[in-house]
Design a protein that fits this description.
This protein has one domain (about 55-215): Porin (Beta Barrel). The longest helix is centred in the first third of the chain and has 23 residues, at about 1-25. It starts with a helix and ends with a strand. It is elongated, with a radius of gyration of 34 Å. Helix content is about 10%, strand content about 55%. By secondary structure, the chain is mainly β. It has one helix spanning about 1-25, and strands at about 55-70, 80-90, 95-100, 105, 105-110, 110-130, 135-155, 155-160, 165-175, 180-195, 205-215. This is Outer membrane protein beta-barrel domain-containing protein. Keywords: Signal. InterPro entries: Beta-barrel_OMP, OMP/PagP_B-barrel.
């Protein structure tokens, strides 16, 4: 009986030692000193906010503006190109600047045609709600509008002196994707929010634009 008990104890000790060795040993092929199952705390943390590190965006927009109110009595729709530059402060927020030239279709009243062209110089920002550089965004701009009136009739064409007014834009847009950065934007433009002469009314326009951005 004593031999059986001694054998059982020895066999049990051998099994316990073998089990402990198997649990602490690294898997086959692992380098010595490397734990078999590292915890998540040992692994490097991964963060992915969709930002590729590119801060600068250069692009162009084609803007179509329909004048409203009193401005609609003096000119037809405006259309023209704008050069756009942007800098991404944080992944979702971009500060922007745009400059361009807006041609105008004539507004005919009797035998007189009139139009108003504009040179916009705008600075602003836009914020992306869905992901950096793509999806839905809202934007606002302030800046200068250099406005020139043109009148023709009876074989005579006259252009007025250019007037500079301080204006603002608010709007929203959608960038299709980071791989296809086509930008569709709608905006409300206030041409002469500040700097109006006595009796001068506020000129408004509703615009729709399309653009493309190159990320640097």
């Amino acid at each position: 009986m004593r031999k059986i008990v001694t054998f059982a104890l020895a066999f049990g000790s051998l099994l316990f030692a073998s089990s402990a060795f198997a649990q602490g040993a690294p898997p086959a092929g692992a380098a010595p000193g490397v734990a078999a199952n590292p915890t998540s705390a040992d692994a490097p943390a991964k963060t992915d906010d969709g930002d590729d590190g590119k801060k600068i965006g250069l692009g162009g927009d084609l803007l179509f503006l329909i004048p409203t109110g009193d401005l609609a009595d003096a000119t037809g729709p405006q259309i023209g190109p704008l050069f756009r530059a942007g800098y991404r402060v944080i992944p979702a927020l971009e500060v922007t600047g745009r400059i361009g030239y807006l041609f105008a279709f004539s507004k005919s009243v009797g035998q007189v045609d009139s139009s108003v062209t504009t040179v916009p110089i705008w600075a602003g920002a836009r914020y992306f709600f869905m992901e950096p550089k793509a999806g839905l965004y809202a934007g606002a701009e302030v800046g200068l509008n250099i406005i020139t009136g043109h009148v023709s009739g009876g074989g005579v064409s006259v252009s007025s002196d250019s007037q500079t007014r301080f204006g603002a834009n608010i709007g929203a847009g959608y960038v299709i994707s980071k791989e296809l950065p086509i930008d569709i934007r709608a905006q409300l433009t206030m041409y002469n929010l500040l700097g109006k002469e006595d009796g001068e009314k506020t000129y408004l326009g509703v615009g729709l634009g399309a653009g493309y951005t190159f990320q640097l």
